[in-house]
Amino acid sequence: MKTQQFDIAVTQSNIDWLGKKVTGAHNGTIDLKEGALQLTDGQLTGGKFTIDTTSIKILDIADPATNAQFAEHLASDDFFAIQHYPEAFFEITAASGNNIEGNLTIKGITHPVGFTSQLQVAGDTLTATGKIIIDRTLYNIKYRSGNFFKDLGDTLIYNDFELNVSLTAKAVS
To answer: In the chain, what are the domains?
Structure first.
Protein backbone atom coordinates (compact mmCIF):
# COMPACT_ATOMS: atom_id res chain seq x y z
CA MET A 1 0.00 0.00 0.00
CA LYS A 2 1.16 3.48 -0.86
CA THR A 3 0.20 6.21 1.60
CA GLN A 4 0.67 9.88 0.77
CA GLN A 5 0.17 12.96 2.91
CA PHE A 6 -0.93 16.25 1.40
CA ASP A 7 -0.66 19.48 3.39
CA ILE A 8 -3.47 21.93 2.69
CA ALA A 9 -2.27 25.12 1.02
CA VAL A 10 -4.44 27.50 3.04
CA THR A 11 -3.85 30.50 0.74
CA GLN A 12 -5.14 28.46 -2.22
CA SER A 13 -8.10 26.97 -0.33
CA ASN A 14 -11.33 28.52 0.78
CA ILE A 15 -14.61 27.98 2.57
CA ASP A 16 -17.69 29.86 1.44
CA TRP A 17 -20.63 29.97 3.83
CA LEU A 18 -24.32 30.55 3.18
CA GLY A 19 -26.96 31.18 5.84
CA LYS A 20 -30.63 31.54 4.96
CA LYS A 21 -33.52 33.29 6.62
CA VAL A 22 -37.17 33.82 5.75
CA THR A 23 -36.46 37.10 3.95
CA GLY A 24 -33.31 36.05 2.09
CA ALA A 25 -29.76 34.90 2.75
CA HIS A 26 -26.29 36.07 3.69
CA ASN A 27 -23.00 34.71 2.43
CA GLY A 28 -19.32 35.10 3.00
CA THR A 29 -16.03 33.37 3.56
CA ILE A 30 -14.06 31.87 6.41
CA ASP A 31 -10.38 30.94 6.26
CA LEU A 32 -8.60 27.70 6.87
CA LYS A 33 -5.75 27.81 9.36
CA GLU A 34 -4.06 24.48 8.58
CA GLY A 35 -4.77 20.92 7.62
CA ALA A 36 -3.72 17.75 5.85
CA LEU A 37 -5.28 14.92 3.85
CA GLN A 38 -4.08 11.32 3.49
CA LEU A 39 -4.48 9.05 0.50
CA THR A 40 -3.83 5.34 0.44
CA ASP A 41 -3.50 3.80 -2.99
CA GLY A 42 -5.06 6.95 -4.46
CA GLN A 43 -8.13 6.87 -2.19
CA LEU A 44 -8.86 9.40 0.54
CA THR A 45 -8.39 7.65 3.90
CA GLY A 46 -8.06 10.48 6.39
CA GLY A 47 -7.45 14.08 7.12
CA LYS A 48 -8.33 17.04 9.22
CA PHE A 49 -8.34 20.78 9.04
CA THR A 50 -8.66 23.76 11.32
CA ILE A 51 -10.97 26.68 10.54
CA ASP A 52 -10.08 30.17 11.74
CA THR A 53 -13.44 31.45 13.06
CA THR A 54 -11.93 34.90 13.66
CA SER A 55 -11.61 35.32 9.87
CA ILE A 56 -15.34 35.20 9.06
CA LYS A 57 -16.29 37.76 6.42
CA ILE A 58 -19.67 38.84 5.02
CA LEU A 59 -19.67 39.40 1.26
CA ASP A 60 -23.27 40.40 0.55
CA ILE A 61 -23.49 43.55 2.72
CA ALA A 62 -21.78 46.50 1.01
CA ASP A 63 -22.37 49.19 3.66
CA PRO A 64 -19.24 49.16 5.89
CA ALA A 65 -21.06 50.02 9.12
CA THR A 66 -23.80 47.40 8.60
CA ASN A 67 -21.20 44.82 7.56
CA ALA A 68 -19.11 45.48 10.69
CA GLN A 69 -22.19 45.27 12.91
CA PHE A 70 -23.21 41.93 11.37
CA ALA A 71 -19.64 40.57 11.62
CA GLU A 72 -19.57 41.55 15.29
CA HIS A 73 -22.87 39.72 15.83
CA LEU A 74 -21.55 36.55 14.11
CA ALA A 75 -18.49 36.75 16.41
CA SER A 76 -20.70 37.05 19.52
CA ASP A 77 -22.02 34.31 21.78
CA ASP A 78 -25.29 34.37 19.75
CA PHE A 79 -23.36 32.69 16.94
CA PHE A 80 -19.71 31.54 16.96
CA ALA A 81 -18.36 32.99 20.24
CA ILE A 82 -14.97 33.55 18.63
CA GLN A 83 -13.46 35.08 21.75
CA HIS A 84 -13.79 31.69 23.45
CA TYR A 85 -13.63 29.49 20.33
CA PRO A 86 -11.27 31.05 17.75
CA GLU A 87 -11.08 27.75 15.87
CA ALA A 88 -13.42 25.07 14.57
CA PHE A 89 -12.23 21.62 13.48
CA PHE A 90 -13.13 18.91 11.00
CA GLU A 91 -11.65 15.41 11.08
CA ILE A 92 -12.42 12.64 8.60
CA THR A 93 -13.52 9.43 10.29
CA ALA A 94 -14.40 7.41 7.17
CA ALA A 95 -14.21 7.79 3.40
CA SER A 96 -15.70 5.55 0.76
CA GLY A 97 -15.48 6.74 -2.81
CA ASN A 98 -16.87 10.28 -2.84
CA ASN A 99 -18.69 9.89 0.49
CA ILE A 100 -16.98 11.49 3.47
CA GLU A 101 -17.89 11.09 7.13
CA GLY A 102 -16.28 13.14 9.84
CA ASN A 103 -16.54 14.98 13.10
CA LEU A 104 -17.14 18.72 13.04
CA THR A 105 -16.37 20.73 16.17
CA ILE A 106 -17.82 24.23 16.56
CA LYS A 107 -17.84 26.08 19.91
CA GLY A 108 -16.23 23.03 21.53
CA ILE A 109 -19.20 20.82 20.53
CA THR A 110 -18.57 17.86 18.21
CA HIS A 111 -21.11 16.14 15.95
CA PRO A 112 -20.77 13.76 12.99
CA VAL A 113 -21.40 15.13 9.50
CA GLY A 114 -21.48 13.45 6.12
CA PHE A 115 -21.18 14.86 2.62
CA THR A 116 -20.16 14.06 -0.94
CA SER A 117 -16.81 15.30 -2.21
CA GLN A 118 -15.00 15.54 -5.50
CA LEU A 119 -11.30 14.70 -5.36
CA GLN A 120 -8.61 15.03 -8.02
CA VAL A 121 -4.88 14.41 -7.92
CA ALA A 122 -2.60 15.87 -10.59
CA GLY A 123 1.08 15.28 -9.90
CA ASP A 124 1.84 16.53 -6.40
CA THR A 125 -1.38 18.60 -6.12
CA LEU A 126 -4.66 17.38 -4.68
CA THR A 127 -7.89 19.33 -5.01
CA ALA A 128 -11.06 18.48 -3.12
CA THR A 129 -14.47 20.13 -2.98
CA GLY A 130 -17.61 19.42 -1.03
CA LYS A 131 -20.72 21.01 0.42
CA ILE A 132 -21.42 20.40 4.10
CA ILE A 133 -24.92 21.15 5.41
CA ILE A 134 -24.83 21.93 9.13
CA ASP A 135 -27.65 22.24 11.66
CA ARG A 136 -26.37 25.19 13.68
CA THR A 137 -28.58 24.38 16.67
CA LEU A 138 -26.52 21.24 17.35
CA TYR A 139 -23.62 23.60 18.16
CA ASN A 140 -25.60 25.82 20.54
CA ILE A 141 -26.22 28.47 17.86
CA LYS A 142 -29.88 29.09 18.59
CA TYR A 143 -30.35 32.77 17.72
CA ARG A 144 -33.74 33.25 15.99
CA SER A 145 -34.21 29.50 15.50
CA GLY A 146 -37.80 28.37 15.19
CA ASN A 147 -36.89 25.34 17.32
CA PHE A 148 -36.28 27.56 20.35
CA PHE A 149 -38.23 30.78 19.80
CA LYS A 150 -41.89 31.28 18.90
CA ASP A 151 -43.55 33.91 16.72
CA LEU A 152 -40.37 34.99 14.93
CA GLY A 153 -42.27 35.73 11.72
CA ASP A 154 -39.99 37.06 9.03
CA THR A 155 -37.03 37.36 11.46
CA LEU A 156 -36.62 33.56 11.61
CA ILE A 157 -33.20 32.23 10.59
CA TYR A 158 -33.17 28.69 9.20
CA ASN A 159 -31.24 26.15 11.24
CA ASP A 160 -29.22 24.71 8.36
CA PHE A 161 -26.30 26.60 6.87
CA GLU A 162 -23.87 25.56 4.14
CA LEU A 163 -20.11 25.38 4.00
CA ASN A 164 -18.79 25.03 0.46
CA VAL A 165 -15.25 23.79 0.95
CA SER A 166 -12.57 23.96 -1.75
CA LEU A 167 -9.17 22.58 -0.76
CA THR A 168 -5.86 22.58 -2.59
CA ALA A 169 -3.12 20.48 -1.01
CA LYS A 170 0.50 19.70 -1.88
CA ALA A 171 2.16 16.32 -1.47
CA VAL A 172 4.65 16.06 1.37
CA SER A 173 7.95 14.58 0.19
So the answer is: 3-171 (2.40.128.110)
